[in-house]
Amino acid sequence: MSDDLFTLEHVHAALNHYTINHGIENGLYPYSPAYWCVEQVAKLTDAEREAALFGLSVWDVIDYPAITVKKLCQPGSDVWNYSIAEMLTNSSKNDLLVSACAIWGWGLTEESDNTSCHLAASNLVFAVLAQEQYDSDIMNEFENLGIKEVRSKAAKAKHEAYYAPLKAQCLSWAHEIIHDTSKNITKTALATAVDSRYHDLIKENPQGTPVYGQFHRMNYNTGQRVKEPAYRTIYGWVKTLLDK
Q: What is the pTM of this model?
């Protein structure tokens, strides 16, 4: 099995394991989200499945599968927010359904936490079903707000979610730098060092490369990719890691 999470190999593993006949035999079909999800993904081609995996595959660059799965179990985490925002923005359920299958497929491996895999994948499936049922944002705290305020808060939440992978990568770099300097570094120096690593990343992976696309996702409301973060944005992300 691959060391990554969002792979076609893991999708195939889920498709082979969660068959409709198997689900009917054990009384789980169609009530189990895994069997329902696999039934939808089985209708897609491998090319469509691979394309759908691209959106969340950025987390394979940043973290180990177990960490990504854990964060998908936590509503409000950077991974959870980004994943939901991607589905809502693209208006396509395939991204999340195929990604959920990949998680279930990875969950069949010995090193995985099967319970966490089920919860993480089920969270993605629920997001799809919620979007189909409601033609609006699914965030509960918005329910009693005025329309203008709802739109404003929803837009801000989506904007922040777009930058989740970049923010997570910058924080990872920041933790490494703090460790290497034994915390003997200022906020300004830390932000400068992280900003330098970010520019090294985009220099090695310029626009048009897969890695650039993973970290700078397309905003389908504007038709443009998210802007490269300015130094002050990176400073805002990493400053809280230091007391001075």
A: 0.68
